[in-house]
Every structure is written in structure tokens, then in C-alpha cells.
Amino acid sequence: MRTLIVGASGHLGSEVARLASATGAEVHGTSTSGADGWSRLDITDRAAVHALVSRVRPELVVNTAYRADSWTICADGAAHVALAAVAAGARLVHVSTDAVHGGRPEPYLDDESPTPVYRYGAAKAAAETAVAAIDPGAAVVRTSLIVGDDRSKQVRLALDLATGRSRGALFTDEYRRPIDATDLAAAILELAARGYAGLINVAGPQTLSRAELGRLVAARHGLDRATVPVCTTAEAGLGPRPGALLLDSSRAAGLLKTPLRPVEEALADLGGGQQRQHRRSGPL
User: Fold this and answer.
1) Which of 7, 21, 48, 216 could form a disulfide with 64 if both were Cys (CB 3.0 to 4.6 A apart)?
2) Residue 70 vs residues 49, 76, 245: alpha-carbon distances, Å
3) CA 46, 49, 54, 59 torsion: positive or negative?
4) What is residue 176's three-state secondary structure?
5) What is the pTM for the complete model shown?
6) Rounded alpha-carbon distances, angstroms, from residue 17 to 116, 169, 261, 272
7) What letter does residue 108 receive in the DSSP assignment?
8) What are phi and psi of 246, to 5 degrees?
9) Tens of pLDDT along 122-162?
């Protein structure tokens, strides 16, 4: 299958590329800088997105691109990708986030409406609305913190804090359901193959605070858990923030053959995710 991965130089995008290549797919990818040999693309440029998709003629488009501080990349860019995918007759999987929700003790089900409190969450909620309107057959995958090897922002942050390369602390009162990048990438490709349409939560089964996650990462790398500095959001002087953004992934767990592993198990077995070799096309 000819597959185009938007944001292929990122952690999740590179895992989708690796797994798609392993199935024999012809993989094309984009990055904002042309890094890793992928095609350079600014997804805020609607004409450029259409031109590239027209040249690739993909059967599947997976949009993993985002930048937390950019509305145009998260929202406008998602709409541009969806429009181009529809024009090409391609299947679309769009990756969203738990940050579209406002936070509560009870887990969120797949089809619950967004209630964002962050600008990033609002941008991703707008992206969901645009994608669903443009392509009702698209799969929109809401996920959580992504872990794995050292490409993971969560892993790098925890290690930098533990070793003193960065200053700060991880919060003891913010809870998420982290997922391994390889598990998430496999789930995305399986949903595409199944022709799944609509919203679906794909996160891990284990609820952890950001502090607990960071200390698990430190231990996995042979560091003392106590070297990861932690605090509450109030101690950090921050205003109101969502305490718990928990995704209920029961639908995905029942539908998919891909296991959604507890993060402790995923961190203990990073062998597969360390292999970054993949077959790809050259820049277009």
C-alpha cells in the first residue's frame, strides 16, 4: 500500500513509517525541514499539501504532525491534509490528543465532545471538527503521552531532569494514560486496514502521574527514581490545570489485535522500538 505519513520525522511518525515498511508498504513521508530524507512540507501551505499528495497518490495518509504552540499547524494544517487526502481518494487517519478534554476523575469515552482548556487542546479540537466535516470516513485517534526510546519527549525530559541537564520538576497531581509509540503506531495501521471511521481512544491501560512516569523512565535507564524532581502544580506556581486526562480505550482494546500494554511493560521491552530502519522513497 502506498502510504504517506505527514510528520514522519517525529517519534510517532517514524514508528508508523517503520512498521508500515515492515509490511511491504511503499512509504513516503514529510517533515518541516526535510530531515531524515523525507520530503519537506509546510502543512500550513494548502497548495503545497495538495501538490505533494497529488504527486505521491497515496492510498493511505496518516497525519501525525503537530506543534503545541501553533494553531495553524494543528488546526489549519489538519484541514489541508484532510482536503488533499479526500481529493486523492486516500484513506485518512488523523492523530489527536487527550488534551481536547478539560479534565475530570472519570475516564473519557471515545465519542465525548471536546472541552479544552489549553490553546493546544482547542487547536486539536478544531482539527477534529475539520477532519470529520471534510472526511467522515477518516479515523480520528485520540491518544495520550507517548513513550518509548530516546525520541520520546517524555523520556528525554525525565532523563534530563534526573541527570540535572534541565531544571524543573514533574507534577505529582497530573494524571494521564501513557502509551508506547510502537503500540500506538501498530494500532493506527490496524485501524486503517480495518477501515475504521470516527473517533477512537487509543491510550495505555495504566493511570500514572507525570511524576510516576518520569521515575519509571529513570529506573528503566538505571537511575535512582529519587533523582527525578517532583512537585505539585500549586508548588510550581501554576494556575488551574486539568488534574486527570484519562482516556477509556475499551473500544480499541476490544477491536484491535494490537495489545495496548501498560507503560511499565512497554518501557521494560524497548528492543523493537529501537530499530529505526525503514524503506522509504526519496524526496519528491
Assistant:
1) 7
2) 17, 10, 21
3) negative
4) strand
5) 0.92
6) 30, 33, 21, 14
7) B
8) -110, 125
9) 999 999 999 999 999 999 999 999 998 878 889 999 999 99
